[in-house]
Amino acid sequence: MLSPSLEDYLEEIYRFSLTNDVVRVSDIAACLNVSLPSVTNALRKLNSEKYLTYKKYREVVLTAKRRKLGYFLVERNSILRNFLKVLGSDCNIAAEAEAMEHYLTRPTIRAVEYLVNFMHENPECYEKFRDYTEKRKNNITALIKSESYQP
Ligand code: CA
């Protein structure tokens, strides 16, 4: 079981490898906005647990088996971002997806994915949901504005 931080490294390495032939320590440091020593430290751990191969001053290579995990990690992040969009949450979607992703189990991620897909495939249901949430938001705003409201 990887720590949330190592999961993020693996996720970013996989994401970067999709559009770049070579992944270097400096690339990952730039993507995650962390120091080179932090990246090196994480890569050593991932290397010792056979998630990837990494030797000093060489490129980073994900092992074939772990590419699947990388794929899942990138997909999971995108499912959760889409979920937050579907919810219409007034949050920082990227930050909230980052916070949620490490604590949900695979079955829950799949269930969330089905819900998101269901909403996309059934625009009439999605429309009803949007109307409902809009009404709720407006009611709460009206309630807060009314003098009778005591928090
Ligand atoms: Ca992440």
Arithmetic mean of pLDDT: 91
Number of helices: 7
Bulk shape: elongated
User: Ions, cofactors, ligands: which are bound?
Assistant: calcium ion
Number of strands: 2
Q: Within the CATH hierarchy, at the fold level, what is the topology of the largest domain? A: Diphtheria Toxin Repressor, domain 2
Report the oligomer: single chain
Instruction: Find the structural class using helix and strand composition.
Output: mainly alpha
Rg computed from alpha carbons, rounded to a whole number of angstroms: 20 Å
Distance between termini? 43 Å
Q: How helix-rich are the residues, as a percent range?
A: over 70%
Largest sheet at a glance?
Answer: 2 strands, antiparallel
Q: Which CATH C-level class of the largest domain is it?
A: Mainly Alpha
What portion of residues belong to β-strands?
under 5%
Q: SSE string, helix = H, strand = E?
A: HHHEEHHHH
Number of domains: 2
User: Can you say what the CATH homologous superfamily of the largest domain is?
Assistant: Iron dependent repressor, metal binding and dimerisation domain
Secondary structure layout plus pairing:
Blueprint: H1 4-19, H2 25-32, H3 36-48, E1 52-53, E2 61-62, H4 64-87, H5 93-101, H6 106-121, H7 123-145
Antiparallel strand pairs: 1-2
Helix pairs in contact: 1-2, 1-3, 1-4, 2-3, 4-5, 4-6
Bound molecules: calcium ion.
The site of calcium ion has 5 residues, from α1 and α5.
